[in-house]
Design goal:
The chain has a single domain, classed as Rossmann fold, CATH 3.40.50.1820. An eight-stranded mixed sheet has the order 1-2-4-3-5-6-7-8, sandwiched between helices. The protein is of the alpha/beta class and 274 residues long. The protein is built from nine helices and eight strands.
Length: 274
Amino acid sequence: MPFASVRSLEMYYEIHGPHGDQDLVNPAELPVLYISGTGGDLRHSFPDRSPLNRSFRVAHYDQRGLGQTSKPPGPHTMADYADDACGLLDALGWERVHVVGTSFGGMVAQHLAIRHQERVGRLVLNCTSPGGLHPSFPLHTIEALDVEARLEVRLGLLDNRWDPGQDDPIPGLGPIYDRYIARVRTERTPESQAGYLAQLEARSGHDVEASLKKITSPTLVCAGAYDDLAPPINSERIAAAIPGARCMTFDGGHLFLLQDRTAYPAILDFLTGS
């Protein structure tokens, strides 16, 4: 299994997609660093199935405290997560990459693009927030609820059309909804719970509203129209603050990448400069 020594961590990562220049759609394209959301674990997120892999070499990784990566005691800062990402690029020998960050990963990607501008080619920020006056929903405030009550709140946040009485409770998800229910109801190990809570603590202090203007990468910000976890207005604020950025809103909620089949093609077009 591939591990890289990154700062004080042993970081688990996987690289998927074409591995030889002759197999790439465009050999001149940079590889992609994908940064996942809160609680991400490559053992459960199927990185080998990402549509990004069709056109790019893509590095997927477990962030500190999660999955198979080292689990140092917190607290951690958003800068820690961003510097970890940059450290992985160093370990891989990738001087410059396109970066795609989703949810919490989008917050990390913002810090990465601000702190390490020279490492980021094109930047895609999915269902995320700049913090400050436009934060994502404070998930740490519902941790005291029991599992069922917390699940009910989270499902409503994922898509404000959620209706458990319907055959498709979250429109466009179908059986994925049932797998999500099963995963959320599964108790985390004490180690993974600590890593998850450390992310929640770090994101509660996330605020880059005043610094977004420093981002020089061509940027696409993507939102789900029915997302109450990271409302579309937050994506609009990010795009307005980053010079030259544009915002696209898709038919879905926080999981619009699974709900709207036009989302990944739009992202791939942007990354390839189409």
